[in-house]
Amino acid sequence: MPPAQASTSAAPFGIGQRQCIGKEFALMEGQLILARLLQR
């Protein structure tokens, strides 16, 4: 049997007060990349 994992292990940016500081930047980058792909 595999070892038990924390319930937040699937959350890429964490949950609660200790969220990743790059979350907003990463989301903005994703939007910019999507916009550039759709322009082509």
TrEMBL record:
UniProt cross-references to Gene3D superfamilies, sorted A to Z: Cytochrome P450
PROSITE patterns found in the cross-reference section: CYTOCHROME_P450
One Pfam family linked to the record: p450
Superkingdom of origin organism: Bacteria
Keyword Heme: yes
Keywords, alphabetical: Heme, Iron, Metal-binding, Monooxygenase, Oxidoreductase
UniProt key word Oxidoreductase: yes
Protein family per UniProt: Belongs to the cytochrome P450 family.
The name this protein goes by in its record: Cytochrome P450
Source organism of the structure: Sorangium atrum
Upper taxonomic lineage: Bacteria, Pseudomonadati, Myxococcota, Polyangia, Polyangiales
